[in-house]
Each structure stands twice: as C-alpha cells, then as structure tokens.
Amino acid sequence: MTEEKNNSAQSPHPDAQAAPRQQFQRRIIFIKKDLQFEYMILIVLSVLLGIAVTVFEVLSTFQSIYKDYPAVLQPLYGKITPIFVTFGLKIAVYLALVILFSAILSNKMAGPIFRFEKTCDEIAEGDISKRVRLRKGDKFITLQDKFNNMMDVLEKRIKRRK
Fold this sequence. Notes:
By secondary structure, this protein is an all-alpha fold. Helix content is about 75%, strand content about 0%.
C-alpha cells in the first residue's frame, strides 16, 4: 500500500491510466454543517424521545407499585437517589455516544454530497473529464457509479461530434 502511494505521488501525470488512484481522505468531520446538524438533531431527538418514554414508563410503574404496595418500595427510598444519579450518568454517556456516531454517520452522507457538488461545479465550468470519486464506505457509491457512467457516455458523444 505504501508503494502505491509513493508511485502515485511520483507519477508525472496523475491522470495517467497506469498510475494507481490515490485514496481520497477527508479530514474534516463537518463538511456540510447545515445538513449534518439537521441529521444529527433528528437522531438525537429520536433517542431523547425513546429515553423520555422509557423514563415515564419506569416512573409510572414505580408510582403504581408504591400506590398499591407502599411497604415494598419503602426500603428502597434511601437507595433511589444514587440509582437515579447512576442512571442519569449512563444516559449522558449514551447521548454522547449517539452524538459522536451521528456525526460520523452524517459525515458519510454529507461528504459524498459535497464531492458531487464540487464535481458538478467543475463540469459546469467546462471540464467534462471530471468524475466523482468517493471513499470506500461512503454512502451513494451506486449513484457515483451511475453519474460517472453517464459522464463517460456524454463525454464520448461530445468528442464524436467534434
């Protein structure tokens, strides 16, 4: 793998057929902030809704048990506060993980959209040889293949007419 990177870096013509394609690596997590934040907010809100429903169900169950059998929960009163604190800390850690994973997942979607936009801008400026290059694991790989195939056909038709 290192040899491929060295060979592609030393190649005088980066678009040459024989040269291996260098892997495109994105270093910025938030590329299309509006889209990514909207996506992350939807994920976090759905998780918060799930947590709220669960907490409501647990509390209403405890209230129902206490109403019908107060002696059963009486010995737990001294231990409920630490249990709720621990539960709150676990929810905070869980939400932090949800935010992290939603940022990564939104990057896997927003990055390809960003690449498509940049490639379309370059094509609109007149360079019809440009193609979309996505990273392995990104979303929209099938769309990339269809788009690039369409551009190949279009470029061949334009060259035939010249």
